[in-house]
Amino acid sequence: MVSKIRKGLGGLGSKLLSVLSATKQEEVFTIKDAEDASGRHGPALRKLLHDLERNGWVERIERGKYLINPLESGIKAEHGTHPFIIARKLVAPYYIGFQSALNYYGITEQVSNKIFVATIKKKRPVSFHNEQYHFVSLEKKRFFGVKEEWIGNMRFNISDKEKTVVDCLFIPEYSGGITEVVKAFREKLDYDKLYEYSTRIDDLASIKRLGYLLDILGIEATITEKLLKKVAGGYCLLDPGGPKLGKKNSKWRVIENISLKDLLVEA
Q: Which domains does the chain have, with CATH numbers?
């Protein structure tokens, strides 16, 4: 929560924020939204937004995007907007994924100030207050498995549990490490969907890691044999963020650079 003392709000500023809150029903708005709400353009609009920011009524997130500090907070401008609500206005299309999704589903207890946002675009990280928004650029064919969730009366996009697992196996370093992904198998998962997603993402390393984990965890999933038939080529590291050396598992073509003991403890 961030707060500062507010200063006066003029009539035009009051109208702008009221219209934005009523029509958009959102706390984050763009320059285009402000133009539509105020009828102002160019230098006049820039001055209005500058004054609102200086006086504590809005905060600039990045170029062309602003956050409305809650009108009901009175003289103290308090920012308490959930990062997922901010993330949804930073890029489109998008979904909350990787470690952020693991945390949302209660799979990992790791708390991070980095919000992972999957998109098909390339975008530099955005820092706002204590959070850093990290955008993971995926090919269009890998952008799927998205569902809607709610925070209050605001909707946001997030990967479903199965896509979260597959994404984290695809890029384990964005999950907090493979030991965090293992915790997902405590959950009730749709293994047919896991198989579909792991093959659809078109990445052999993801298939190898998934099959290996199901095997060592002793999960009698119906997909294990189907996954094994897909295994080909060279070896991949179980966890790219770990050591480069380890025992080679010839069945799944995986280099076991994380100890079995650590994996089973986390499971």
A: 2-80 (1.10.10.10), 84-266 (3.30.460)
Please name the helix (run of DSSP H) or strand (run of DSSP E) that holds residue 128, with its range, or none: strand 126-128
Question: What strands lie across the sheet with 247-249, from one edge to the other?
Answer: 236-237, 254-256, 247-249
- Whole-angstrom Cα distance, residue 186 to residue 188? 7
By residue count, the chain amounts to: 267
pTM of the model: 0.89
Task: Convert the pLDDT of each residue in 89-112 to its tens digit.
Answer: 999 999 999 999 999 999 998 888
Contact between 199 and 230 under an 8 Å Cβ cutoff? The reply is yes
Q: What angle do CA 24, 30, 31 make, to 5 degrees?
A: 120
pLDDT in tens, 50-59: 999 998 899 9
Q: Which of 181, 195, 148 is nearest to 266 (CA)?
A: 181
Distance CA 176, CA 203 (A): 20
Greatest Cα pair distance, the chain, in angstroms, is 72
Taking Cα atoms as reference points, which of 81, 166, 95 lies closest to residue 137? Answer: 95
Which stretch of 102-111, 167-176, 186-195 has the lowest confidence by average pLDDT?
Answer: 102-111
